[in-house]
Amino acid sequence: MNIFVGSLPFSIEEADLRESFEAYGAVDSVKIITDKFTGRSKGFGFVEMTNDDEAQKAIDELNGATVQGRAIVVNKSEPKPEGERRSFNNNSRGGDSRGGYGGGNSRGGDNRGGGNRGGY
Question: H or E segment at 62?
C-alpha cells in the first residue's frame, strides 16, 4: 500500500520516517518530497508497505500523531486519474496573453520585444 504522509517537520529525514513506520511492519520504500531547486523538504512524503493490514494499522495509529512538535497527516495515497492531472502550460488567466508588468508594449504595434520595458 502506498501511504501519504503530510504536515511533516521540514527537518525530518527519510530514515526517521522509515523507523516510525517499521514499528508496524515491513517498509518497502520511503520518499520525502523535496524542492528540486533548493533541496528543502516540501513537508510531505510517501511510504510504501507490502502488507495492507500493517499499513492500515500504521495509518490508524500515526494519523494525527505528533512528530517533532507537529501533528502529521497519514492516509492511503490514491493515484489521481489521468484526466485530472494539470498541465504546466495551461493559461489559467482566460486568454489574456499580454503578460504581466504593465500589460505588454504600450507604444502600439506588435509585441515582439523592444517596447516599454520600464527600466528592467
Answer: helix 52-62
Q: Which residue has the cell 489521468?
A: 82
Residue with cell 509585441: 111
Q: Is the dihedral of CA 40, 45, 47, 53 positive or negative?
A: positive
Sheet (strand 41-49) strand order: 27-34, 41-49, 2-6, 73-76
Residue corresponding to grid cell 518497502: 28
Instruction: Find residue 87's DSSP bridge partners.
Output: none
Place of cell 500504521: 58
The 10s digit of each residue's pLDDT in 5-48 is 999 999 999 999 999 999 999 999 999 999 999 999 999 999 99
CATH of residue 68's domain is 3.30.70.330
β-sheet bridge partners, residue 75: 4
Domain of residue 2, residue span: 1-74
